[in-house]
TrEMBL record:
Keyword Cell membrane: no
Subcellular location: Membrane
Domain of life of the native organism: Eukaryota
The protein's name: Uncharacterized protein
Species of provenance: Salinomyces thailandicus
Biased composition (Basic and acidic residues): 47-56
């Protein structure tokens, strides 16, 4: 390493706040190194030993191989969340045919809910395997569990078999695949981050569209058991191929990959982010699992019910890329708040009046376009709240937070229906939960505006050579800006600003 390079490193060191060491990513985009001398020795060793594996160079912002990763993540979403969305068709089939004699509607509801909650519960384990063994190992663990779950479900003849296979085992597989892949796309993009994430998450909508229609057709033609086996074979082939092609940039960006970074819970802005996820999932799970059964409740047949579920997923596939695009241009928090509010409004106004096939089709497409806003915005918004480096840790805790709503939302919905004999209570529950989630985002945008204003003030003061630190309690600029954002949260939440 030349003297000039060492001087450049000395000018802009990165400080590890946990250890006090000065760190800097190496020139190839690798993980940070201690500048006490080991970096020089390692660089010289890498030059002299051709057998040492070199880390990939930092890619240009906004793409490159990132678009390949976007496609792969989209396909994984199609064969995890998309497959899971087809449970609405399975649920309608179970309830209509009494597939497992003696099973109640509440038990069937818990099968679908368990798949999502287990996916969230395994997030610490998936984060750990990603940090210790790498992304590909995590993804292939997910492939194994998901394939085993679908093949195992094909042999189920009692309801508890379904709990273990289509519920718990599928959820574990989906969790490892999801956690292993969800943070990769944002790592490859800067200004197009939300757009790319929108394309990746639209895969779940396309998968839900395809597999809702395919599942309905297979149930009518080849039966329940072979429907499960065909889905298992397809998911194994596609997810395995994507796992081989995906590349993460955890080392290049210095991602923390901590399973339990509980210090985040001491930040009010992060708690608002958790509230956004909690209330969004209470509504979203009800919508994707109940709409096909609601179609049956208003007199539609099985093929029409599966089409309604498919159109809901079509709406998600069509709506997510534009949400991502406008998130980058209008603000990620702004779009999350607006689209989530529209989800609640559409449920309260349109779904409650959807008593005919045509109106329900209209709601399925329009409501579906905004129903999954949480999944489009969760990674980009978390980067706004905690910073890109802490996104894996923040998301890991977020998945644990949404375990409860994922588990109990659909049972709550069916209990409301069974208790009242009508769907109106469930529809109102869905709409109001979306609106509460949107309120959390409105408060969060107030915090973000206050933080950005404080950063601008500090830059202005620094330019005027004014000492802004003498009378402040915060230890660093980042903490000072966040504290200022918290103080002005309510005052700023209705200001217009791109955030």
């Amino acid at each position: 390493m030349t003297e000039r390079q060492l001087q450049q490193e000395a000018k802009s060191p990165d400080l590890d706040h946990h250890t006090g060491q000065i760190l800097r990513a190496d020139s190839s985009g690798g993980s940070p190194r201690d500048l006490s001398g080991s970096a020089i020795a390692e660089d010289e060793t890498e030059k002299s030993d051709p057998h040492i594996e070199r880390k990939p160079p930092t890619p240009a912002p906004n793409g490159g191989y990132g678009w390949v990763c976007t496609v792969c993540c989209g396909l994984i979403n199609a064969h995890t969340w998309g497959l899971n969305s087809s449970y609405g068709v399975f649920l309608a089939h179970y309830l209509a045919t009494d597939t497992f004699p003696g099973a109640t509607s509440l038990e069937y509801a818990f099968v679908g809910s368990l798949s999502i909650s287990c996916a969230m519960l395994v997030s610490p384990a998936a984060t750990y395997t990603t940090r210790v063994f790498g992304t590909k190992t995590t993804l292939f663990i997910g492939v194994a569990f998901e394939t085993a779950s679908l093949i195992g479900a094909s042999f189920a003849h009692e309801i508890w078999h379904l709990f273990l296979s289509q519920g718990i085992c599928f959820g574990i597989g989906m969790g490892f695949l999801f956690v292993g892949s969800v943070g990769i796309v944002p790592q490859w993009f800067t200004t197009r981050r939300s757009l790319a994430n929108g394309f990746a998450t639209s895969g779940s909508g396309l998968g839900g569209l395809l597999y809702s229609l395919a599942t309905g057709a297979m149930l009518r033609t080849i039966g329940l058991a072979w429907a499960f086996r065909v889905l298992g074979i397809l998911s194994f082939a596609v997810n395995s191929a994507c796992a081989l092609l995906l590349r993460d940039r955890n080392a290049a960006i210095g991602a923390t990959q901590l399973a339990f970074e509980t210090s985040l819970f001491r930040r009010p802005e992060y708690l608002l982010f958790n509230g956004y996820g909690f209330f969004s999932l209470l509504a979203y799970v009800v919508l994707i699992f109940s709409l096909a059964n609601y179609a049956n409740a208003i007199g539609l047949d099985a093929s029409q019910a599966s089409l309604i579920s498919a159109l809901l997923n079509l709406g998600q596939a069509l709506g997510r890329p534009p949400i991502g695009y406008f998130s980058d241009t209008l603000g990620r928090i702004n779009m999350a708040a607006l689209m989530t509010f529209l989800s609640g409004l559409f449920a309260l106004i349109i779904w409650t009046n959807a008593t005919s096939y045509g109106v329900l089709i209209f709601y399925s497409i329009l409501g579906g376009a905004v129903a999954g806003t949480f999944w489009v915005t969760v990674a980009p918004v978390s980067a706004e709240v905690v910073g890109l480096k802490n996104v894996p840790s923040a998301l890991n805790l977020e998945w644990l937070v949404i375990v409860l709503p994922s588990t109990f939302s659909e049972p709550i919905a069916l209990e409301i229906v069974d208790g009242t004999g009508r769907y109106i209570g469930t529809q109102l529950f869905t709409g109001f939960m979306y609106i509460v989630a949107a309120a959390c985002m409105v408060l969060l945008r107030g915090w973000k505006i206050g933080e950005l204003d404080e950063v601008a003030r500090m830059k202005s003061a620094s330019a005027g050579e004014v000492d802004v630190w003498a009378a402040e309690d915060e230890a660093d600029k980042d903490g000072l800006a966040k504290a200022a954002g918290r103080k002005g949260m309510l005052k700023n939440c209705l200001k217009w600003r791109k955030v």
